[in-house]
Design goal:
mainly alpha; 145 residues; 63% helix
């Protein structure tokens, strides 16, 4: 296995080839073809196939979003556990003010820059994207689903 490229804001988005380049295109193509066939040959059978194609698309998105939701819950817990000893008061007592998105974004920040960054996030109400851009020393997460 080759060396991993250092993770940065520019390259941290993860593409899952089986999902993004196979499953999703196949399900979308099937839906489009089902709709096209329904228009050309209206009937109960072609309508039902279109409903099934739509159900498959919804299932694919629900499976993906449910996995990401569970992962985000785990990341929030991990980050709260990680941040508590790194932050002094009063920042530690304000951990509950951080949103889920902010906690998920903060996981990329190194331990050394966490106190100043958390203070800035709380003060400026930074969004996830802006937090990631503000990180100087990137802490990679290669496990993202």
């Amino acid at each position: 296995m080759g060396e991993r490229v250092p993770q940065t804001y520019a390259n941290h988005t993860k593409w899952d080839p089986l999902f993004h380049f196979f499953l999703l295109p196949v399900v979308l193509t099937h839906l489009v073809l089902s709709i096209w066939k329904l228009i050309r040959q209206p009937g109960v059978e072609t309508a039902w196939l279109t409903v099934l194609a739509l159900a498959a698309l919804v299932a694919v998105f629900k499976i993906r979003t449910n996995a990401l939701s569970v992962q985000d819950r785990v990341i929030r817990l991990e980050e709260r556990l990680r941040l508590a000893p790194l932050l002094g008061e009063p920042l530690r007592s304000r951990l509950g003010e951080l949103t889920a998105g902010q906690l998920v974004a903060l996981r990329f920040a190194s331990d050394a820059e966490i106190p100043a960054l958390v203070d800035r996030v709380l003060r400026d109400k930074m969004r996830s994207k802006d937090i990631k851009k503000a990180i100087v020393t990137w802490r990679p997460d290669y496990q993202r689903v």
